[in-house]
Specification:
The chain folds into two domains: 201 residues, P-loop containing nucleotide triphosphate hydrolases (Rossmann fold); 189 residues, 3-Layer(aba) Sandwich (Rossmann fold). The protein contains 17 helices and 15 strands. The strands form three sheets. A seven-stranded parallel sheet has the order 3-4-2-5-6-1-7, with helices on both faces. A six-stranded parallel sheet has the order 8-13-12-9-11-10, sandwiched between helices. The two termini are 34 Å apart. The longest helix has 14 residues. It is globular. With 410 residues, the chain is α/β, with parallel strands linked by helices. The structure holds adenosine monophosphate (AMP). The site of adenosine monophosphate has 12 residues, from helix 3.
Amino acid sequence: MQFHEFGFRLALQDAINALGYKEPTPIQAQAIPLLLEGKDVIGSAQTGTGKTAAFALPILHQLGVHARDPRCLILEPTRELAVQTEENFRKFSRFTDLRSVVIYGGVGYEQQRAAMKAGVDVIVATPGRLLDLVQDRTVSLAQAKHLVLDEADRMLDMGFLPDVKRILERCPKERQTALFSATIPPAIATLVKWAMKDPVRVAVDIERSAASTVKHVMYPVAERQKNDLLLALLEHAHWESVIIFCRTKRGADDVFATLKRANHKATVIHSDRTQGQRQQALDGFKKARYEVLVATDIAARGLDIADVTHVINYDVPEHPEDYVHRIGRTGRAMTTGDAMTIMTASDAQLVAAIERFIGQKVPREKLENFTYQYTAIFDEARLGPLSERRVRGVKLSGGGYSIGGGRRRR
Ligand code: AMP
């Protein structure tokens, strides 16, 4: 299938050509015709599957030409995602006179107020700040007839659902609503019932979007050796750019400090850093000023960073879908990437949940020339039955780890 078969307006088709998109991705092929027909759509697709274009293009097509009041609202859980999505809208609408604006908290109000005054067609926003601007009447949602709730499960995790509901109450009843979410927990199902009309579900297979081009490996190690193993992995792998994921902000800061001490060109993003610091870190990483980006899940969710050769999970993620999101940073656009996860004895259950979620067993490896200290995770007597009970048959044969060398990309 080709993009021109959707029959987009010429200005949009020109932008698609300029971006070099040839064929629609699976989520685009499924969602675009439905959204063009005006249907409500629930999409299960990870970031990296092209889901932004899947909703942005049909909405821009329906908007047509510029009008004063905002007619499209996209809600995102984080500022970074909001910025990135709005950048995409700009790229797609560059040959039209449609205008978009991004609205998020943690920065001054003036610029966002001025943009609203000038008149916009598309608002991409995080819920909190948008609600402020709706309440002080800077923003009217009375004409917002296209609504997208992106990463809805993450908005739920972050406690945004009450704000989202209040925002929805300000939108017209006659509207088109699209919702994207990796999972549909009960609270999202309730929201769907309340906010959507006969939605059609489209899904992209999670296993495939967990990146068939990525090689996954677990590195079991004693808790006290995590930092040493991390530095050894960085030394060992032929990486060009790497993102290291940590579970907590504090943990991310500690890892960042460890890397700085070891003279790595590193930077860090998490939600306690200012918007300016986060943007500076991301820009620096994209422009290769930094080779290593340390991040928490929330800060890194969905970021479109091309050409990351490796992802290292310093901590095993608590939610299996975060594993898929993290790994989605590498192996994009069919380049191969490596995903390495450092696991300790206490992570066995989390790892089992991940393996169930991705429907794949992740091999355990030992790093060559690294002096391992004893940990219960190497104890075959424990691992045997434990692995059968919890890891569904992934057996770690004691001492039988394959060696991690010779498989890296140059
Ligand atoms: P997303 O999942 O929306 O974050 O998109 C991930 C990346 O894929 C972005 O860099 C997009 O520009 C790119 N992309 C989206 N759709 C296509 C397509 N049909 N062909 C090639 N690249 C695409």
